């Protein structure tokens, strides 16, 4: 019996099926690479403003690329930015040149690099890969851009000393909105007891430190997904100042009361002195007024030396009235 000859159509179909499986495996392999996803869940790349990001298409060795187009936007409505073809040094721009052209570089046919990232660059980037033979697949690169973490500072409440413990409240404060920020407290050389009560605000920390503990420190760490900043405060001097303040509080209070009493009596003495001075001035003014009144009385008459005849004068008094006054005066003598 002669062996069966192989059908050439069947052999061609098997070859096409193998090529299709190879290309599909390329897309599925690319979906497993970091930052690139196929039809599965999209794991975003996270970058900080001003940084750069590199998207890289993965493919099976030997797979021949015909074209790679890069787009931006959701699957239902995205825009093609540029296309890359084999043997060309520069990409072919399709849209959004004003936004991306100065910041986008294409190191090779399977890579795209974006520099000086801004918050507007957040979104989904898509690489549509066309292979020789008409097979296509898409790899998705989700990208999230975060702002840098603002430098925090630690604000210190007034410490209090009780039973050998220093009680103080610390607040970690950032200069910008803290909605998307996380805060943690880190300690070094610190043994503190927890203050009872409801769950505290994570930005505020109440601690009780033993006075015998040497120079502990606390750090406030503010972070987001891509950046973090730290502020550190040494508590040794803080509690030392609080203890010293408590030691001198009694003497200072006594001195303060003594000063208040002294000022009170000084005020009373000043009031009495001013009252006496005012009364003395009033008596002096009355004496001057009496003397002025006597000095202004005009003589009732005077002798005219030229005629040796008496001439009478008085302010506002007639001569007859003046004479009558003289007669009365002489009669009384």
UniProtKB/TrEMBL annotation:
Gene Ontology annotations for the cellular component aspect, listed alphabetically: membrane
InterPro entries noted in UniProt: CD2/SLAM_rcpt, Ig-like_dom, Ig-like_dom_sf, Ig-like_fold
Membrane-spanning intervals of the chain: 254-273
Signal peptide: 1-31
Keyword Membrane attached: yes
Keyword Membrane recorded: yes
Location(s), subcellular: Membrane
Domain of life: Eukaryota
Residue span, Ig-like domain: 142-232
Keyword vocabulary terms for this entry: Glycoprotein, Membrane, Signal, Transmembrane, Transmembrane helix
Protein name: SLAM family member 5-like
Native source organism of the sequence: Camelus bactrianus (Bactrian camel)
Lineage, uppermost ranks: Eukaryota, Metazoa, Chordata, Craniata, Vertebrata
Gene name per UniProt: LOC123617398
